[in-house]
Amino acid sequence: MLFRPHKTAMVAPSEALPGRDEPPFDVPELHAVLGTPIKPPFPQGLEVAAFGAGCFWGAERLFWQIDGVYTTAAGYAGGYTPNPTYEEVCTGLTGHAEVVLVVYDPARVSFARLLQTFLQEHDPTQGMRQGNDVGTQYRSAIYHTSDKQRRLAEAAIAAFDADLRAAGYGPITTEIAPLRAFYYAEGYHQQYLHRNPSGYCGLRGTGVSCTIPEEVAR
Q: Which residue(s) pair with 192 in the sheet?
């Protein structure tokens, strides 16, 4: 398996691994905690976004615990290689980030609340790493599926960036981009910390409270 010599530099599209037309593995049909399907079609009225906050094990648990979240899944997004494997993503040659797909009911939980949890529970200033996890696959990212989500994400990050700078942190490096494709991770990654309660979780917040401005939350 090849590895990039500079794990924190994004691979060029022309240098990315080719991938494949179909997933090379199966994933469970139902969420191990919520009991809901982790693949579409999802019930009408639900909305979808994906968040990258370092290792997806802890990030997925963070979101499935929020009331109003219908289902979550660990996977890969933001890169170039179709249907990658975990081993391929770890090489840095796919361009993908480890992310959590979050399917939520906007009548029960707002996107602003999801953003607040996301920003507050990891360090969005670290660039191509999160704690001891170093590499492009561990970058902070928000992949949106609507213009409203994009506008909310940009406004929330601008507000939190000011708070972090006042607390002595550097600028927020979170990537904001459309969710063009989401590829499910292998079955053993799905709800990993439910099945392995003592497993690794690299989530570490900054300790700075994230207050979403009222005009952003609406």
A: none
